[in-house]
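thought: user wants a sequence for this fold. calling inverse folding tool.
action: design(structure=
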């Protein structure tokens, strides 16, 4: 009898998502996130300092667009999110669509960037590209939340606490 109670539990994965400044579509994007089955485990609106933005995107520091990217990211509040779902990293990348909204509109017309990005720089949303990045960026933005990971807190509760 008891054996029936024992099953396999695959813990849901987490990713860091950002609604970038100036999107004007924050609420719609949050609705989309939930409609696509993600749990919003943490939510925080933050204006990044230049130092934080540079650190956040340090992997891109040698790219020609790095300066513009940092300027963009510090222009106003970013909505920082921890999204929880099975396969969250890849699912969120798919929900965002390609970096370039022109390409997004061609290949993924339902994606968030196809619908809400202004151009390749101001492309509305960010998402970690792999689990290591997700772990590092969640820690960078939210600190140590590992003790909260077991019980993925209900979205509303998490949002109301900010
Ligand atoms: N970006 C840009 N020009 C480019 C490529 C990227 O301005 O040619 C910006 C854009 O905001 C992008 C961010 O830099 O989201 C990070 O680039 P990445 O290649 O990591 O794209 P992502 O992972 O965000 O799709």
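)
observation: tool returned 162 residues.
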């Amino acid at each position: 009898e008891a054996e029936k109670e024992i099953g396999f539990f695959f813990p849901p994965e987490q990713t860091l998502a950002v609604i970038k400044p100036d999107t004007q579509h924050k609420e719609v994007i949050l609705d989309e996130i939930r409609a696509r089955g993600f749990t919003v485990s943490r939510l925080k609106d933050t204006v990044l300092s230049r130092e934080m933005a540079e650190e956040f995107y340090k992997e891109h520091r040698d790219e020609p667009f790095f300066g513009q990217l940092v300027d963009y990211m510090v222009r106003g509040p970013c909505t920082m999110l921890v999204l929880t779902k099975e396969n969250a990293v890849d699912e969120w990348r798919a929900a965002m669509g390609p970096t370039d909204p022109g390409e997004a509109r061609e290949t993924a017309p339902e994606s968030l960037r196809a619908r809400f990005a202004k151009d390749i720089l101001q492309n509305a949303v960010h998402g970690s590209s792999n689990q290591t990045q997700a772990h590092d960026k969640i820690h960078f933005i939210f600190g140590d939340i590992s003790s909260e990971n077991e019980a993925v807190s209900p979205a509303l509760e998490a949002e109301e606490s900010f």
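thought: summarizing for user.
answer: Here is the designed sequence. The pocket of uridine-5'-diphosphate is lined by residues 60, 65, 69, 99, 120-121, 123, 126, 129 (CB under 6 Å).
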